[in-house]
């Protein structure tokens, strides 16, 4: 018999273009989850760095406007480096609250931004990251594409933890890759607040026989700066992102949520033995697969545009090679 896991999804928004203020919000919400006994907490897509809902970045076919370049420069400045000071703050938040964290960040890597999910254990150690492999629609203008080297599933004391970001969850082969790595706690961070999102989360939980922890942003006009082009609606209370966070069981049952139009923390106790009970009659990467007919091949090699083979600077530390920061609290 497995030990139950108490899990939380945190529905919140960013302080637009203000990393320090957003980290303060994250710290408060994680403490709230910890006070309810949460051992693992999932936060929304791009909550640190922000989701620029409604901005067009001055793009036209064959044309980029200077105001769009200015908007991207501002967004680039508000992104976070991995490793970097913001990750250090997240590490301390995880360690101080003894909570495993999955946090959506806008990652800055040179001149390119990525929509990224970072994982930190309850001692504050950075375990690794997942970069969104397929930005949706206009997101492709501002975010780069992740490769197969950042599709981790971490074997933790809370179970096997992995995840996908927003519309990646609509990619059947990406889901299959996570199922193949025996994901148990499937962390779906998002800004998709449409009713169809709920159908997808229930389907994924039932299909993968896993627990789905979906954290969505909720954002009001007042969360953005005064000069933000908020789709023509300058009412401070206008909702730009409505939320929809939810926790779903391996049998497609709602355990908590969905929560709309307000910030909050949803908590549920997860019985991991439900996973084996569910896979009794449906294991899509086991007895319910037909590898003689269908196979998925996943390229997990880093795709680097510049590869140094003789001399040059040493390669950056890869995910899984060890913590990027000292552990704040050793046991």
Structure notes:
α1 (19-35) runs parallel beside α3 (85-97). It is built from seven helices and 15 strands. Strands 8, 9, 10, 11, 12, 13 and 14 form a seven-stranded mixed beta sheet that branches. Strands 7-6-5-2-1-15 form a six-stranded mixed beta sheet. It is α/β, with parallel strands linked by helices and 331 residues long. Mean pLDDT is 93; it is low at 317-331. The radius of gyration is 19 Å and the shape is globular. The longest helix has 17 residues, at 19-35. The two termini are 25 Å apart. Helix content is 23%, strand content 27%. β13 and β14 form a beta hairpin. It has helices at 19-35, 66-77, 85-97, 139-142, 172-180, 195-208, 273-279; strands at residues 5-11, 40-42, 59-60, 63-64, 100-109, 112-120, 126-131, 153-156, 159-165, 185-190, 211-216, 218-220, 239-248, 254-260, 264-270.
